[in-house]
Amino acid sequence: MAGKLFACDFEVFGIVQGVFFRKYTQKQAVSLGLRGWCMNTRDGTVKGQLEGEESPINEMKHWLKTKGSPTSRIDKAVFGEMKPIEKYSFNDFGIRR
Fold first, then answer.
1. Which residues have C-beta within 8 Å of that of residue 39, sequence separation ≥ 6?
2. Catalytic residues
3. Which of 14, 33, 60, 83 is most buried, taking the most CB atoms under 10 A from its CB?
């Protein structure tokens, strides 16, 4: 039986547009078995939603706070509350435009 599932919103501030941040975020999320999405905002941030088990989500949060894409500069990352969910709402991790 799989572990409990959670959903968590995020927004990353800094130099995160024009530096392949979404592509690297998608690659990292998929490698951790997470689902959800990310997109650029008009404010120059990247926001999105993560769905998965607690441990991979926490690993992804750390990645979003400290790593990002090779040429990005992360000033801060803000995360919503981890909410328990019954089942996935997404089939994979996508990039929204």
1. 22, 46, 47, 48, 95, 96, 97
2. 22, 40
3. 60
Mean pLDDT of 11-31: 98
For 36-62, how does the pLDDT look when each residue is reduced to its tens digit (9 = 90+)?
A: 999 999 999 999 999 999 999 999 999
Torsion of CA 44, 45, 49, 50, to 10 degrees: 140
94 with 22: CB under 8 angstroms?
A: no
Is the pTM here over 0.90, yes or no? yes
Compute the distance between CA of residue 51 and CA of residue 63 in angstroms, rounded to an integer. 15
Task: Give the pLDDT band of residue 26 (cuts 50, 70, 90).
Answer: very high
Residue 29 CA to residue 7 CA, distance in Å, equals 13
**Helix (H, G, I), strand (E, B), or coil: what is residue 80?**
coil
